[in-house]
Description:
This protein is mostly helical. 61% of the residues lie in helices and 5% in strands. The strands form 3 sheets. A two-stranded antiparallel ribbon has the order 1-2. The protein is elongated, with a radius of gyration of 31 Å. The model has no long low-confidence stretch (mean pLDDT 96).
Amino acid sequence: NEGALWGGRFESGPAAAMAALSKSTHFDWVLAPYDTRASMAHAKVLHSAGLLGEADLATMLDGLERLAADVASGAFTPSESDEDVHGALERGLIDRVGPEVGGRLRAGRSRNDQVATLFRMWLRDAVRRVAAGVLDVVDALATQAAAHPAAVMPGKTHLQAAQPVLLAHHLLAHAHPLLRDVQRIVDFDKRAAVSPYGSGALAGSSLGLNPDAIAAELNFDAAADNSIDATSSRDFAAEAAFVLAMIGVDLSRMAEEVIIWSTPEFGYITLADAWSTGSSIMPQKKNPDVSELTRGKSGRLIGNLTGLLATLKAQPLAYNRDLQEDKEPVFDSVAQLELLLPAITGLVSTLEFHTERMAELAPAGFTLATDIAEWMVRQGVPFRVAHEAAGACVRVAEARGVGLEDLTDEELAGVDPALTPGVREVLTVEGSISSRDARGGTAGVQVARQLDGVRESLDTL
Ligand code: ARG
């Protein structure tokens, strides 16, 4: 078992199928830049503890630096015999500085505390990139909202005509969950910023190494309080996988609407050529593939979260090799979002809205009925009575094949004497919308206020 990190007590090396099963370099190599950086920090605490002389420290740091450069350039890669990223990099270090100095690095450190630390480092950086991508989507939504301050549309519940709303209000309804996802990432980092380094295999180190010094050197807020917990828990990874899945789910809700809105039956939007695809057989096709891939990949992100939770369930303390399965789902969720987010930003910022069509449909399906009832309440009528009366107006209009706004004064009064012509002030889409002017409502003033708030969050997050 030449070059492996273990082997003293073994007479033979692993069987080929054992080695193949054990191997993780094909996915954990992304941790290599973090591994070399953390090794430099570890070398310094070995030196501070008197376990590595001045000259050896300099040799080791120089070797690690050259190794990091070779990793970055692709000149150094894992070989067939390397089990994982950690073993490969120790081989690389020993190649560069020899076994006498290179063989000292591993003192007081186990792959268990090492991989837990490196995974946290990688993830803290990765979710920061994801957050930036999410904020780009929010920015695109806010820009579209600002470009359509007065456009109206049919608001729906159960996908049925409900009440008219401003398009900007609807667009910002997709911005808020995404902003909360970014806040979740910020919050995640508080818990992720704790360093397991110094925990060793599970029980801590006897060599007088200072975990706080290494934590600070690697940009963590603190070192872990419990070495058993630090090497065996992966709730930080599950938490990140949840936030990534939530982002996928939030994007999928928007994607679904883009798919529906771009059908001729809705006709709300046209997609830009650059963000749609054609058909190999049907020449007329323009398909919303960005949105469909978003919808599809959100299922994959949910799978990554549930798969990881299943891996973690009921593992006894402390480290178990099951934990090697923790990385791929999280790496994958990040990779999928890094593909999706720029495409969704492109899609949203180039959507062309057919505002006349949306305005025409806004009152369809008697969406002003609630306005009649609420207007009557403002005149002192009990809501129960008003609800009945507005329903009767719908019945009359439906029978005559007209909209609520087309009812005559006589027809209105015939339903309920309280329905004087004054009700007409809310029997327009604009009247209905501007009457909903309390905080959070769809009135123009409130939506403008809301947009300011979203912009402010974009500036501060
Ligand atoms: N490659 C492992 C992982 O990703 C770390 C190695 C720990 N191996 C061990 N035998 N303790 O979790």
